Amino acid sequence: MTGAAAARNRAADGATARPVDLRSGSLQIRLAESEADIDGVQALRYRVFYEEMGATPNPDMALKRRDFDDFDRHCDHLLAIDHALGSGPEAIVGTYRYIRRPAAKKIGRFYSAAEFDISKIVAFPGEILELGRSCVDARARNSATLRLLWRGNAAYVFHHKIDLMFGCASLAGTDPDALAVPLTYLYQHRLASPELRPRALPGRYVEMNRLAPGSYDAEAAAAAMTPIVKGYLRLGGCVGEGAVIDRQFNTIDVSVVVRCDHVTEKYYRHYERRAKTDGVTWNPKGL
User: What are the tens digits of pLDDT across the range 163-191?
Assistant: First the structure.
C-alpha cells in the first residue's frame, strides 16, 4: 500500500488523527501520507545507502537516484522531517520501513526471509512487525533525531498493538574477521531464545561466534555498536544465529528480535516524561 493509499484508508476508517505525530523544535516524526513522501524516502535511502555507504544500485535505481523495491508500496514508512530544511521531500532526514502481516501476505514474504529462516517468528501467534530500511541523513545524524525516531517506533507499536518486532541490523563491511568483535559479542551476550531464534539461510550462513569468551572487551564492544543496533539492544533486543553478507549493500546483516513487552507501559511513561522534558508533542493514537 502506498503512503497515499494508507492515508485514504485511515480517513475512511474515521481516523482523523495521525497514528504517529511527534515534534521537537523543527523536527517532526510521522508516517508517509503521499507519493511525494515515498519519493522523498527513496531519495534519502539512495543518498545514504548508495552514495555514502557504497551500496551497488541496479541500473534503474542509478538512473532515478532512488532506492526502491516491491515492498515499498505495501508498507508504512516512518519519516523524520526537518521543517527548517523546507516543506518538500528535501526535508525528509530519517526513516524506518514497517511491514506487518497484511503487507507481507500481499508480497508473499517478509523482507528478511531472503536472508534468514524466520519461520518461528511468522508462527508467533501475536501481532508482529518487521522494521527495515532505516537510515538518517548525515545532517541529522545525532542523538536527538535517533531518540525521536525510536519514540515514533514506540508510538506505532502501541497503535497497532504489536507483540514482536524483528528485522535485519547491518554492520558496515563484508569481512567477518574484521567484524569479529561485534559479531561475537552479539552471539555470546544477545542470542535470542530458541523458540524465537531466526537462523541464517543455508548457503548464506556466516559464523558469528568467532572469538573465545574473555578474549575481547565486551563492554567496549557493546559501546561501539552502531546507533541503530544500540536502539534495538536498549529495548532488550536479541539476535538470531548466523550472520549474512550483503554484498549489494556492503554490509554484514544480523537478524534482530524484540519482544514488545519490553516496550510496555513502563517505556511509554519513560517516553512521555522525556517528551515533556524535551518539549515534544507525544500523540500515539489509540493509547
Answer: 999 999 999 999 999 999 999 999 999 99
Residue 14: exposure state from Cβ atoms within 10 A (0-12, 13-18, ≥19):
exposed
CA–CA gap between residue 34 and residue 4 (Å, rounded): 4
Nearest CA to 190 out of 159, 216, 222 is that of: 222
Handedness of CA 46, 50, 55, 61 (dihedral sign): positive
Three-state DSSP at 78 gives: strand
Nearest in space to 187 (alpha carbons), one of 195, 163, 179, 125: 179
Choices 3.30.420.40, 1.10.1040.10, 3.40.630.30, 3.40.1030.10: CATH for 3-278:
3.40.630.30
Supply the pTM of this predicted model. Answer: 0.85
Q: How far lies 198's CA from each of 32, 61, 121, 250, in Å?
A: 29, 30, 7, 22
Contact between 236 and 201 under an 8 Å Cβ cutoff? The reply is no
Q: Which residue has the cell 552471539?
A: 187
Average pLDDT over every residue of 56-85 = 94
- How many CA atoms lie less than 13 Å away from 174 in the CB half-sphere? 10
Residue 107's region, left for phi above 0, alpha for psi from -120 to 50, else beta, is alpha
Instruction: Phi first, then psi: give them for residue 185, nearest 5 degrees.
Output: -60, -50
Query: Sorting pLDDT into bands at 50, 70 and 90, what band is 12?
Result: very low
For residue 39, pLDDT beyond 70: yes
